[in-house]
Amino acid sequence: MKIGLLTGEFPPQHGGIADFTRILATALADRGHAVRVITTLSAQTTQHFSAPYTVHPVARHWGWLDLWRVRQCTADLDIVNLQYQAAAFGAMRLPIHLAPHWLRPPLVVTFHDLRTPYLFPKAGALRTAVLRRLASSAAGVIATNIADHAELAGSSKLQRSAVIPIGSNLLQPAACPPAQWRAAHSVAADEILLGYFGFLNTSKGGETVLRTLALLRQSGMNARVVLIGGSAGASDKTDAAHNQQLLQLAQSLGIDGQILRTGYLSEADTVAALQSCDMLVQPYADGASLRRGTLMACLANGCPTITTNPATRVPELQHNVNVQLVPPNDPAALAAAVRTLQADPALRATLAQGARVLATSFDWASIARRTEEFFSAVLEKFAASAARH
Length: 389
Prior knowledge:
The chain is an alpha/beta fold. The chain has two domains: 192 residues, Glycogen Phosphorylase B (Rossmann fold, 3-Layer(aba) Sandwich); 184 residues, Rossmann fold. It contains 13 helices and 13 strands. The strands form two sheets. It has a seven-stranded parallel sheet, sandwiched between helices. Strands 10-9-8-11-12-13 form a six-stranded parallel sheet, sandwiched between helices. Helix 7 links the parallel strand 8 and strand 9. Helix 1 crosses helix 13 and helix 7 runs parallel beside helix 8. The chain is elongated and about 70 Å long. The model has no long low-confidence stretch (mean pLDDT 90).
């Protein structure tokens, strides 16, 4: 197949959608497909020259002229897959939501995020109507988790749909062993190092992490937190302001000296940082979800991970089997969980092994195969419909 992946983020931009699209493009190309990534002008870089896919950076602001450029760039393709996250396309700007009507090949939409903070919270009923129209007019819809699929199916008449999960965006081995990483960052052997991975936006629970560290320090635990990766994504413009608020909070709590910030890292260095932590704390304010690439990375790297109870039950996430679950926005509960894991090395080992086992269900070869099969089914239905008319 000649496949187009249409995305508002792509390397060198930093973000989950950028990483997802890059890895999916490679995995589909490895299965013999001709893959074209259609994206923003900021993706103009030599780093893609040796990739098994081609990159076409045609969009500036995702306005009407950009949609016309996308139409021209995709006219010869068999199918186009829109990686939809509203923030990556200028929030609720209209043109991208009309892509199913403008593009010649059938369009499949992968919905990466339906959470209100990312989708212009003041839009109200408009947001629901726009999403319903986009989902209903697409030739196919992919949700990354069961909860999002239920929401889309309940509010829209979908032509064809599937649930296909995301995988870890960290595929490289660690750059160095944990002891070397800790020594390089002046982390003593007897210090309890808590890791937090991902951007620090309002939904990720950064404030809970800081307040938890303060509680642990007050109780006498020799704990530190390392914030792994960049602090702000390419699309969410609120990240920078939230980061400043967290910096002020850390200072007011008197814990700013116990916080390490790695900044943006290569894959290998990120893996090394994750594996050097005694445990990971990912207290998502809206609950854990398999849409979270950061959580998938923690699991794939066998990290004992404490996260928050999902808003909608996620059968794969099992308390004290592959994760430890606590209520969201509850520093006391998170601190108690940290103490429990620190006092029980056997439980930490159980969670690490359970995480690795769970992560095997989300390998990229399987994700690419299932995506390919869904595209084929959409094209078959599209061809049958065209024959009838």
